[in-house]
Amino acid sequence: MLRGILEGMAQTFRSLLEKPVTIQYPEVKRPVRARYKGRHILKRYENGLEKCIGCALCAAACPSDAIFVEAAENTDEKRYSPGERYASTYEINMLRCIFCGFCEDACPTEAIILGDNYELSFTGRAASIYTKDMLLESVASEDQLTPQSTPPGAFTRSVPEMKDTTE
Ligand code: SF4
Ligand code: SF4
Question: 7-17 pLDDT, tens per residue?
Answer without folding.
Answer: 999 999 998 89
